[in-house]
Amino acid sequence: MLRAWFADSWQSFFRGGSLVSTRAAQDRAARIEPITAEDTRPLRHAILRTGRPLAETVFEGDHWPGTRHYGAFIDGRLIAVATLIPEATPAFSSAGAWRIRGMAVDESFRGRGLGAALVRACLDHAKSQRGRLCWCNARVGARDFYLRCAFALQGEEFDVPGLGPHNLMFIKLEPDKTSD
């Protein structure tokens, strides 16, 4: 049953369905909005840098020109965040590359499609800026999530000191017809 729900939700999502997936749409108060880098830090700290200094939630690129931060809200509460940075990676051509990082969803709200909605917001923005590729260093535990979001693996698993095993993942972007 759960597998069928995921299949239906993800197919709808990647056919250009609504910004928020089927289950999240049931949560009428769910919305995706731009936020500041500072707004991302409490969730980054709680989910991605648990037990580490708060200063580690300040990422290189947070304040670069073009960087965007998005938050998912339910009933006015920020429950998920993601950052999109115009940044190349050595594995790909630098022209038109964007990086998703700092993706964090409050554990009690996982499985509602809000992470996917944040990815969609990031991809939509990158496409509107003539982005050709979006990439991330995905924690091994998030690899399947990104695969469901149509990202592909690039290269071998690698270790980020203090954070654990990761995979470089990417998705090629189709041109945004509305930006012409």
Q: Any idea how many domains?
A: 1
Strand content: 25-35%
* Structural classification: alpha+beta
- Helix content bin: 25-40%
Note the overall shape: globular
CATH topology: the name is: Aminopeptidase
List the total number of helices: 5
Number of strand segments: 7
With strands numbered from the N-terminus, the spatial order across the biggest sheet is 1-2-3-4-5-7-6
Which homologous superfamily in CATH is the superfamily?
Answer: Gcn5-related N-acetyltransferase (GNAT)
What would your notes on this structure say?
Strand 4, helix 4 (about 115-130) and strand 5 (about 135-140) form a beta-alpha-beta unit. The chain is globular. It contains 5 helices and 7 strands. A 7-stranded mixed beta sheet has the order 1-2-3-4-5-7-6, sandwiched between helices. The chain is an alpha+beta fold. It has helices spanning about 1-15, 20-25, 35-50, 115-130, 145-150, and strands spanning about 30-35, 70-75, 75-85, 95-105, 135-140, 150-160, 165-170.
